[in-house]
Structures are given as structure tokens and as C-alpha cells.
Amino acid sequence: RQPPFMNEAINVGEYLFATKKQCCEKWFDFAPTCDESDSVGGLMYYPAFSNDVCSRKPLEEFYFWERVRFNTLDECCDAKFPHNRAECCASPGMGGCTSSTDDTVMYIPDWINGKCDARTRGSIPTHEVIYARSSASSCCNDNFFWSSNCMTKSSGR
């Protein structure tokens, strides 16, 4: 559903597109993975701090200020509840975490150079786990959303 002003004849070419790629090129050229995401309509995970676990809901139910969301239960539990990972992964109805080893590759932001570096989960300090993501594109989108250069500078794209 779009706001009524988008349907006015003068605005149709500015806001309504035949493909997701056209929309991304017009409005989100700063986000290199805009047209790669298939999560629209899908479920995203978010921290439920009252229970120290992660929960999920459809992407369209998130408010614009709710930026803390993850593609997988693993990412959510690792980032928000590393001290309670076992219970978080065992949350009823969430499907469980898929990885449990410290050899899993995660991407951590390099704040000084504006990029994301690949590291094993076990090598990431506990205080930095909150920023780690399972892919370079997720790391860049979540930690350097204002930068168009993060993906080109990051390792393990």
C-alpha cells in the first residue's frame, strides 16, 4: 500500500515502478544490495529483551525506527544475547540456531576504515559480537548504512 499522493498522475513515474530493480536504482542507489533482498514479506528476527531471547515477525510489521532486526536466529542470538545463546537458540517456535561452532565466519565492522572484515565467531570479542553479521552485505547495511563504499572495501563479499 502506498500513500495516496503516489497515485497522482504527476507522481506515478517518481514512485511506482514495474520492478524492484528500477525502484532501487532510483531511490536506493547508495545500497548496493537493495535489489538482492528477498526478505520483503518474510520473517525477520528481533531481540525480545523482556525474555532474553529473540522473536520474529513479518518485515512489514516493523516500524521505521525499529532498525534492530536480523535475517537469522543465529545472528540475533549472537548479537544480542551471547551470554544466553543456548536459551535464545531454544526459543519455542523459532526453529533453533543452525550453527554452534566458533569456526563460523562472521563479519565485523572496521569503524576506522568504514568496512567489514571476515573473522571467525570465536575470535570476536564479546563486546563486539553485537555488531557481527553473517554476511558482509548485512554488516555494511546495518553498521555503515550511510556509506556507499563499504561493500567495495570489505573482505569476503
**Molecular shape:** globular
Look at the helices and sheets and give the structural class.
alpha+beta
Beta-strand segment tally: 4
Largest sheet: 2 strands, antiparallel
Helix content: 10-25%
Runs in which pLDDT lies below 50 for 5 or more consecutive residues are none
User: Which oligomerization state do the chains in this entry correspond to?
Assistant: single chain
Strand residue percentage = 15-25%
First-last Cα distance: 34 Å
The largest sheet has its strands arranged as 1-2
Give the helix tally: 6
Structure in words:
The protein has a two-stranded antiparallel ribbon. Strands 3-4 form a two-stranded antiparallel sheet. The model has no long low-confidence stretch (mean pLDDT 79). The chain has 157 residues and is of the alpha+beta class. The chain has helices at 12-15, 20-27, 73-80, 85-89, 136-143, 150-153; strands at 43-48, 53-58, 105-110, 115-120.
Key features of this structure:
single chain, 157 residues, alpha+beta, two-stranded antiparallel ribbon
